[in-house]
Amino acid sequence: MSFEALGLSAPILKAVAAQGYETPSPIQAKSIAPVIAGRDLMAAAQTGTGKTAGFTLPILEKLSNAKPVGARQARVLVLTPTRELAAQVGESVQTYSRYMKRIKSTVVFGGVKINPQIAHLRGGVDVLVATPGRLLDLYNQGAVKFDELEILVLDEADRMLDMGFIHDIKKILRILPKQRQNLLFSATFSDEIRALAKGLVNDPLEISVTPRNSTAKTVKQWICPVDKSRKPHLLCNLIHEHQWHQVLVFTRTKHGANRLTKQLEADGIRAAAIHGNKSQNARTKALAEFKSGKIGVLVATDIAARGIDIDQLPQVVNFDLPNVPEDYVHRIGRTGRAGADGQAVSLVSADEIKQLAAIERLINQQLTRKEIEGFEPDHALPESRGQRGNPQRKPQQNRGNGNRNENRNSEGRNGNGGKSAGNGQQRRGTSQARGAQSGNDRNDPNGNRAGQRRRRPSGNRSRQPA
């Protein structure tokens, strides 16, 4: 199937071609035509499947012949859980509308002054990408109205619920016109998501394109047994020995990220950390320098890394295993994209055997162990029982507390993030993500309210646009 066959007009097709994309991904092939036709949609699609373009392209097509929008009005509202994801959506809108006339869009978020955002909204926008908290702030100040709203998109709805946005979402739904088109995207259709959908979508088309809790076949996964105290030295050794030039490293805590960054720098490795205690400017700068190759290692916590979108990222390292096994899938899904090979290495100490077992149960796979000479653990890593005795058992869910402290850390009532090409995949040219607006506020390091439920994994990329 081609993009032409999906009913997209020449200016949008030109923008898609300029990005180097030739064929739609499964989610795009299934969603674009129904959205253009005005259907409500419930789509089970993870990050990396091209879902951003799956709703951006048809929305822009519907706006191509729209009349000018009124003052302080928004014709399309896209709600996202984090500023990083909002940045991706915002750039996707700009990228694919570049050859269209009169399409105005903006991204609103906390973490920066609200007055410039109010100014951007004054003349009205065709597409408003927002996180819930700042959107409510703007609405309460009279900066935005929804009398002309035609389309509502809830992107990564499951993560919005996990982060505690249900009350904000309900408030927003109450102020929107009842006659509108609704598009709901979620990694999975849990009971909570279906309960939300009952009051949101009308006779929706339901599509699903990615299996839950799957890991990409292009990602080589293995673990290094090592004593906890020697993890920093082992990581430095791996980076030097294998000449890794772009490594995304995950730690469980903010303080651990800071500590590891200092240890890497002391060993001559240029590194930076991003987490909830970092200012938005510092996070944007670190991400930009990592993408440009100015620094070789980016040390991140799970929440802060949300939205990092880098084509052909070769290495992901789990310095600490996550408490929530689904986060493992999300972490390693950042490499091995667009058909490229990637590698995910986990440094595992004896006290993490429970986390390892939970991960192996979830992905239904026994991870290869490889001890590094000179770093053999004094405390042997016990055998994991994650898959033992029943290789076909269904993945089990872990409802642990995960990074709740990370979620609870506050950067005030706001958020922001690094801008990248939505869920973009490999391109023919270079793709440099730019710092941009996104995210939200209230008690979360990404500017989101602290959640009580667990997050779910994101998927892996294909060769289609994001």
Automatic annotation (TrEMBL):
It is an enzyme of class 3 (hydrolase). Gene3D superfamilies: P-loop containing nucleotide triphosphate hydrolases. Its EC number is 3.6.4.13. It comes from the Bacteria. Residues 218-380 form the Helicase C-terminal domain. SUPFAM superfamilies: P-loop containing nucleoside triphosphate hydrolases. One of its GO terms (molecular function) is helicase activity. Residues 32-207 form the Helicase ATP-binding domain. It is found in: Cytoplasm. It catalyses: ATP + H2O = ADP + phosphate + H(+). Keywords: ATP-binding, Cytoplasm, Helicase, Hydrolase, Nucleotide-binding, Ribosome biogenesis. CDD domains: DEADc (cd00268), SF2_C_DEAD (cd18787). HAMAP family: DEAD_helicase_RhlE. PANTHER family: ATP-DEPENDENT RNA HELICASE RHLE, ATP-DEPENDENT RNA HELICASE RHLE-RELATED. This is ATP-dependent RNA helicase RhlE. It comes from Biformimicrobium ophioploci.
